[in-house]
User: Fold these one by one.
Assistant:
Number 1:
Amino acid sequence: MKSNAVSDLAQNEVSDKLRATIRKELQPELDEIRSDTLRDQVVEAWAVAIAHTSFTCISDLRASGMWNTDRLIRGTQADHLRGVAAIAIQIAHALKQQFPELPVDRDILVAGALCHDVGKPYEYDPVKQARRKAQPSKAGWPIFRHPPYGMHVCLTVGLPDEVAQIALGHSYEGEVLARSPECTIVHYADKSYWQTLRISGLMVDDYKDQGAA
Ligand SMILES: [Fe+2]
C-alpha cells in the first residue's frame, strides 16, 4: 500500500491510456523523432508531468506562455508544442541548406521542442496553486517556474541531458547558461510563436484570478 506522501505525489495514474492520449496529442511532430527510445521518453515525460497534477491531458492546460498571461484565441497547449516543433524543424532545415555542417541533432531538436514546456502542468495546476497561495510563507509564491521543473521531469524519465537542457534553457533561465544550437533554435521558435500570434491579434487577454486563496 502506498504511503500518503507517495499517493499524494501522483494524482493520476501513469497509465497506458494516458500515454496513448499524449502520443495522439503530439502527432504528427512526435513521429519526426527517428529513435523509438527517444520518442517513448518524450511521451513518458509528458505522462509523468500530467499524472502529478489535476490535469488529465496536455490539452487541459491553458494555451498560454504563462499560467496568468494571454492565451491563444483557439487551440491548446498541445498545439503550441507542435507549433514550436514544426517551426524549429524548419529553422534547422533552412540553416542546414546553407551550412550542411551545422551541428544540430534533429532528434534532440524535435524531442527538446516537444518537451520544452513539460514543466508547465506543475506550474499551471490550479490545485497546487491554491495550496501554495493559501500558505505563501510555507513554500513561497508563485510556484517555481516550468523550466527547472521540466528539467527535473526530463532527467527523471531518462531523457538525455541535451533535452533536459532545452527544457531548462528555452526561456529566460537560458540567459545565464550557454545554450546549445538545438536549445537556441527552440528558444527562438518559442518566442516567434507567441510574439507573432500576439502582435497579429490571435491572443486574448482574459485571465481571471479565480481566487485560489
Ligand atoms: Fe513554449
Number 2:
Amino acid sequence: MANQNAKTTNENGELLNETAPMEKHSAPLTAGNMFARLAGIGCLLLGVVGAFLYLGGWFSPQKLTPARFVDEFERVSGIHSGFRHNHAKGVSVRGFFDSNGQGTRLSKAVVFQNGRVPVIGRFSLGGGDPHVPDALSTVRGLGLQFSLPDGEQWRTAMINLPVFPFKDPQAFYDNLVASQLDPNTHQPDPAKGTAFLASHPETARALTIIKSHAPSSGFDNTAYYSLNAFRFVNADGASTYVRWTLTPVQPYETGTGASQNKDFLFDGLIASIQQHPLQWHLVMTVAQPGDPTDNATIPWPEGREQVDVGTLTLDSVESEETSPARDINFDPLVLPAGMAPSNDPLLSARSAVYSQSFTRRAGETKEPSEITPSEVRK
Ligand code: HEM
C-alpha cells in the first residue's frame, strides 16, 4: 500500500505535506460547516482533557495515585503540619563514607572509588505520627545522602527489617486502609487484618521471617537493609543485581523496652553518638540469575556473594529543626551513574509518593520536632 503520509512537491518544487492539497480544495466557510468545525475542535479538546483526567485518576476512583496514597497516610495518622507522612519522627546525623575500592568491580559509581565522601542522614521511626512513643517493635529507618566529588548524589532510605512485608504499592496501600482505627474501639479491626493476610500470603511469609529477627536495643546496633534490588553497571558495562545492608560495628544487644521514656530510642542514639562515632559496613549482596529482583518480600538464598565496599561513620547528631536533612527527600531513585533501578514495582511508587509527601510538607508551617535542639545538647 502507498504511504499516505509521504511528502511530495508542488509544481514549483516546494515541499508539501499531505494536508496541503486537501486545503486547496476545501469548501467555502458557511455558518453550518463553521459550527461543524467548532464542534469538531470542541470534541478534540474534550478528548485531550479527558485523557488528562483519566491519567490523573479522576474517572477511575479505584486507581492508586501518589495523592491518594498520601491522603491515606493522613487519614490513618492525622495531619501533622510540616512533617513527613511516613517515618515522621526523626533526628538528623552527619558523617562520611570511606570506600575501600571493592565496589568498583560491581559499579562505576564514583562513590565506590577509593576515598571519602560526606554523608548527611536521618534516623526515623515508621508511621505518620511525629510524636509517637518509641517502641522496640516499631520499624526503624535510616535515610542517607552521599555527596560525590563530581556533584552527583546517591540517596537511599533503608529500614531494619530483613524483608519488606508488601510486594507492590497496591498491597502497601490496601494494608494502610485495613489498618485504619475503628472509631468505636480506637483499634484496627482485627477481621480486616485477617482478611488482608488471607489474600496476601507473601505478607504472611514475610512476617514470619521478620518475627524471627528480635529487634536490637537501639538505632546504633541494628542493621539497615535496602530491601529493593538495584542494577549496578561497572566500567566495562557489565550489569549485576544487588541488595545492600548496613551491618553495625556496634555489637548487637537485645532490648527490653520496659518502663522507658517515650524517646528512649532517640535518647539512646544521641548518648551513643556523643560518646563515640558510630560505624556500619556497607555490604553488597550479589544476586545469582533467577533471584527475584521484583519482590522485596522474598529473601535471596543464603550463601550469595557478599562484598564489603566500605565503612559509614556517623559522628554528629542534630535536631531536625536545625539540620538540612529535614528538607531532603530521601528518594531511592536519586542514583549516581553506575547504579540503576531494578524492575521492583516498589521503587517507582516510592519515588512518586515521596515526592507527593515532600511537596505537601514543604508548603506547610513547620511545627517543632519531638527531638528538639535542647534534647540533642543534653
Ligand atoms: C510502596 C511502598 C512505600 C511507600 C508508599 C512509602 C512511603 C513513604 C513516605 C510517604 C515517606 C515520607 C517521604 C517524605 O516526606 O520525605 C517515606 C519515608 C521513608 N521510607 Fe518509605 N515507603 C515505601 C516503601 C519503603 C521501603 C521498601 C523502605 C525501606 C527499604 C522505606 C523506607 C523509608 C524510610 C527510611 C523513610 C524515611 C526517610 C527520611 O528520613 O526522609 N519505605 N516512605
